[in-house]
Write a structure and sequence with these properties.
- Helix content is 33%, strand content 17%.
- The chain has helices at 7-10, 12-23, 45-54, 70-76, 80-90, 109-112, 126-135, 155-162, 200-207, 274-291, 305-317; strands spanning 3-6, 28-30, 37-41, 64-66, 95-100, 117-121, 139-140, 168-171, 182-185, 191-194, 212-213, 236-237, 248-251, 265-267, 295-297.
- The chain has an eleven-stranded mixed β-sheet with strand order 1-8-2-3-7-4-6-5-9-10-11, with helices on both faces.
- Helix 2 (12-23) crosses helix 7 (126-135) and helix 3 crosses helix 10.
- Bound molecules: threonylcarbamoyladenylate (TXA) and magnesium ion.
- The site of magnesium ion has 3 residues, from loops.
């Protein structure tokens, strides 16, 4: 069971323990003003993979990367003039900006789901701030709920849902807002990807015009699920047991018999380790995409992180 630190009673001790756990690569329950997050070092692929592993039915949605201040955000993302104005108006606070990722990036591919953009946010919650300043690396943190369940707004929610899967939860009392951050994509036309704690009206005042709306609003809570996910331009088929002429092979475990005939072979994990495979997935897709040959992907066991990997590959394989 996760160790619970109440910042009200344990003070700095909780923050220090959280920082130490994060430095060691662990996943922790972190309070923010919106909801509790499942946080880990955004620059370490295996730590980001561990966040997904802690979710019961994981799928590799891109994650919000939390930083201590605007400067930290600018290092990771090109916020541009509009992003700068929104940051000035609403940070620190419950606004997430999706902006072009600066490359080369220290952020693990898995945190951005291989996208060319990154979601960044500067939380105002003082405990979140103390932890971010103590570690001095960005924290990837989705809401701390198992997939399909409502977001956690108290440390007790986090403990009961995920306490057996994470090391530590920092209790800073009930989330002040209790609703996820508003997500705005900076672009040709700024777009509201997820309504949240910062109102559309307040945003439009700064933007100086109407915000575009993403999709039909039918599932506004999951803007990253479908269209914006990185999809390779080349075609991909799953459950390959041989390589056809002209194909690249995305292998897992011992490669198929005629792997030597492939245009290129990338093995997600020769040892058949699902965590390792998860950390390599998006960079492997990107590399094979650059080569340009259709991809034959070997089957992946549908357990643990394998579920999310298969989900991702099936999306890439779906007719488009
Ligand atoms: O209030 C919050 O934002 C909380 C706290 C912990 O900060 N976090 C949170 O994260 O709600 P999560 O993972 O539950 O939601 C992140 C959303 C997802 O719907 C994801 O698709 C979207 O952000 N997202 C992340 N990166 C994106 C990107 N590059 N483009 C579009 N959507 C993105
Ligand atoms: Mg969520």
């Amino acid at each position: 069971m996760a160790k619970l630190y109440g910042t009200a009673v344990d003070g700095d001790e909780g923050v220090l323990a959280a920082a130490a756990a994060l430095r060691a690569g662990a996943v922790i329950g972190l309070p923010t003003e919106t909801v509790y997050g499942l946080a880990a070092d955004a620059t370490r692929p295996e730590s980001v993979a561990a966040i997904f592993a802690a979710k019961e039915r994981p799928s590799f949605n891109p994650l919000i990367v939390h930083v201590a201040d605007v400067m930290g955000a600018e290092e990771l993302a090109d916020l541009g003039d509009l992003g700068g104005r929104l940051a000035e108006a609403f940070w620190p606070g419950p606004l997430t900006l999706v902006a072009p990722l600066r490359r080369p990036s220290a952020i693990a591919d898995l945190a951005t789901a291989g996208l060319a953009t990154i979601a960044v946010r500067v939380p105002v919650n003082s405990v979140a701030q103390q932890v971010l300043r103590a570690v001095s690396f960005p924290l990837a943190a989705p809401s701390a709920n198992p997939s399909g369940r409502v977001s956690a707004t108290t440390a007790a929610h986090v403990l009961s849902d995920l306490g057996d899967r994470i090391e530590l939860v920092l209790d800073a009392g009930p989330s002040a807002i209790g609703l996820e951050s508003t997500i705005v994509a900076i672009g040709q036309r700024p777009t509201l990807l997820r309504p949240g704690a910062v109102s559309r009206e307040a945003l439009e005042e700064i933007v100086g015009g109407r915000l575009g709306l993403s999709g039909s609003g039918a599932r506004p809570e999951a803007p990253g699920m479908l269209r914006s996910h990185y999809a390779p331009a080349v075609s991909l088929r799953v459950d390959a047991t041989t390589v056809d002429p002209g194909e690249s092979l995305l292998a897992f475990g011992p490669p198929v018999g005629n792997a030597n005939e492939a245009v290129e072979v990338i093995n997600l994990s020769a040892a058949g380790d699902l965590t390792e495979a998860a950390t390599r997935l998006f960079s492997a897709l990107r590399e094979l995409d650059d080569i340009g040959a259709p991809i034959a992907a070997m089957s992946i066991p549908e357990r643990g992180l394998g579920l999310a990997i298969v989900d991702r590959l099936q999306r890439a394989a779906a007719p488009r």
